[in-house]
Design brief:
5-stranded antiparallel sheet, about 20% helix
């Protein structure tokens, strides 16, 4: 009985510690949704906090390092992957995507949903040393557990119906989540099928430099 009480006490302390430990915002797997996109654009803003290193003197001085590929996967509410792509984000760089402009403009299904689930997976870009690569072409279809890295920070806007009957825009961070091996394999496999289709459908447009935020009312 004494041993049982000790084990229960240890378990209780562990649960308290887990509850007190905040979720890291720079996790390699982050998720968010965008809603009511027919009433306005929803933007995704992404930066690289430099967790994997950065050029000593900044861009143009010495070798590239610490670059990450942000792999983007968009799903319709019925769980179908409608588009995927990847964006190179340099340390301290800032890029943006638009849900209407980039993710749903040419969906694989041919149907444009009014709300989507967006999943982001951060991986180290290629090159030697790793993270010095300057291309993320097709990386969304070939991410492995070994390539996952921290350092990604992302925010998104969405449209909410206000009590007055109009729509308000809010911006919040993406939520870090646990990425299982099965989910990672599913993301890569589905994206590979899209990229291998060769028609251009489901391949989201490129990230653009800078950020597009939201005004709160």
């Amino acid at each position: 009985m004494h041993l049982r009480n000790v084990l229960l006490a240890i378990l209780a302390l562990a649960m308290v510690a887990m509850a007190a430990d905040p979720v890291a915002l720079d996790g390699p797997f982050q998720v968010r949704y965008a809603a009511n996109t027919t009433f306005g654009e929803s933007y995704i803003n992404i930066t690289n906090d430099g967790a994997n290193g950065a050029p000593l003197l900044g861009p143009g001085f010495g070798d590239q390092r610490g670059n990450i590929c942000v792999n983007v996967y968009a799903f319709s509410p019925d769980e179908q992957m409608i588009s995927c792509c990847s964006c190179l984000v340099t340390p301290n760089g800032l890029v943006n995507l638009g849900v209407n402009r980039d993710l749903t403009s040419k969906t694989l299904t041919g149907i444009i949903p009014t709300s989507v689930v967006i999943k982001l997976v951060a991986s180290l870009s290629g090159g030697t040393p790793a993270g010095s690569g300057t291309s993320c072409t097709n990386s969304a279809a070939s991410v492995t557990t070994a390539l996952l890295v921290p350092g990604m920070l992302a925010w998104g806007t969405t449209n909410h119906l206000a009590p007055a009957g109009d729509y308000e825009v809010t911006e919040t961070p993406f939520s870090s989540a646990t990425l299982s091996a099965g989910e990672l394999a599913s993301l890569g496999g589905r994206c590979a099928a899209i990229l291998g289709n060769g028609s251009g459908f489901g391949i989201c447009r490129s990230c653009q430099a800078g950020a597009l935020g939201a005004a709160r009312r």
